[in-house]
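hiii so my PI (J.) wants the whole complex modelled not just the main chain, which honestly fair. so below is everything: two entries, each one labled with what it is. i double checked the lines twice but i was tired so who knows lol
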Amino acid sequence: MWTTSCTNKSTVTPYDPTPYEIEIPFGFPTKLNIPADNPMTVEGVELGRYLFYDRRFSGRTHPDSLMSCATCHRQERSFEAGVDHPGFPGGFPHGITGIPTPHAMLPMINLVWNTTGYGWNGLLYPTNPNPDARNIEDFVRMAALAPHEVNGDTTRIKNLFQTIPGYPELFEKAFGSKTITFTNIGKAIAQFARTLISANSKFDQYMNGEVQLSQSELNGYMLFTTEDGGDCFHCHGGFGNPLFTTHLFYNNGKDTVFNDARDRFAITGDPMDHGAYKATTLRNIELTGPYMHDGRFATIEEVIDFYSTGVLSSPSISPLMHHVNNGGVRLTPQEKADLFSFIHTLQDDDFMTNPKFGKPDKFPDE
Amino acid sequence: MDKLFRQRIQLLFFIAFTWCIISFSGCDSKTDNAEPTTGKLTLHFSHKIDSESIVFDDMRYVNAAGNHYLVNEIQYFISDVTLFHSNGTSLLLDQWEDIHYVDTDLPETQNYIFKDDIPQGIYDSISFTFGISEEKNHSLMFVNPPESFMFWPENLGGGYHYLKLNGKWLNELNQEAPFNFHLGIGQIYHSYPDSITSYVQNYFTVHFPVSAFGVKAGETQTLELVMNVENWFQSPNIYNHDTYGGDIMQKQEVMALAVENGWNVFSIEFMTYK
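here's the output for the full assembly
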């Protein structure tokens, strides 16, 4: 009996995942938003990458009914759709049934440093009393269910992956069980999403003393970081905040009437949050149009024009928009060109081609 | 074998019993020597206008220049908190973590709980640096939010904002106009805005000369430190938003007025023991 028992035990693969260490780029925060019940592991990230790209995430197998995260989140567009997306004209995505998403897409990079809330209005945040609306894991479930995204069924999705050869073994390595749950699907995709770190732009190299900026880029940097210039830095960061966002929410003066049921006011109930949305990171921003929560601007030039002369006053406009009564920061054409040059230095081309973030060469059953 | 076994058991019990006696005696003697001689100190921050707690986002206030204004948020650093003992000595608290961030939107920042044990006794007064001294104000020393969001641009002197006081006022055209009353390192320009010849450290010391308080052994003394916001705008300089506009980070002459007005912005309102 003893011998038999020992033999049986020795055939069980011990659950021993390898911790995944996130390297903190120069100047980046050391505090990471990783939930305690989903520690990063090499196996979890690997599985998450498969699931992120596997179009059977729709829970269906018919060729017309396939959809994955990567259907909209394209690596070459810094994991947004981009204005040149072949299926979403202008970069406005819609779900598998054709229903458009209520907002334009948000950057899907450096998410592990977002501690204030995911989404344009920050609906998912770590201290949310609703335990199903706290982090990226919950975003995965919401995306799977939403009619304007996958329009799926979590039971059907996890049952489908359970039947695909190779996946149960990957789940066992990542989570200790071959039995696939949607909770673990969400955890794996969230782990992969947290590895999408973009921190090797020309400006990063300038911060590290490796390259020099051109005179136009330096002029733009000066405009970016001065109140009498473009005054971008209070919301969008800079040398001291290389995330290039505060992840906070501002009414930046786009409108005077607010009737979007998904603005920051919907979360806080604070009248000063009418028309307020997350300040997005400006890293790789040139690739991630259209811009603003409703995608009203197709190009960076249009955005700069807006901040220069198109800002509108309202009772809830952020006090940081202190040029509002002049319509904006009133940049000259040369200043606009310089500011654009600086913003271009925030583009990390290596990130867009990094094979660690790309589609796997083959899926587990291939 | 049984006898030997019993002897060993008895010996083990004897050793254990003796150890217990010695241990408890030791504990007793330690207790005798453990009379606390130190206490703790906490600063609680509050923010008022005209002696009342601020009602944020409400255009209900009038400053000394007659500007109607509202306050949206206040964020600032204090550092180098020092206690002056009645015996003539002074004590710099938490020397290695001595910069504290206060944010009116973040209640957890509104208590500064010092880690240091503070000798019991009567302290004549307390002082602190408003902002961060030149010696300590280095860029990227805070990489985590919310402190990192206070960074002061490198090309304006670097380091961190000492203060962000954001609000709106009714300007001469009766429009709501945002103001960013921000303090940090100032610049002296040769030609504005491209040529800076030198920088000005605008941090300053706040000292409460008549602020005697006691620290009791084994207890925590809490002092309420009040920022009286209207005082930023009234003495000795009448601060008119219509004159100085919505932003002052690149206007050293205006930041200098604000620094001069900072002398009586803070007060200590009450003290309690716990």
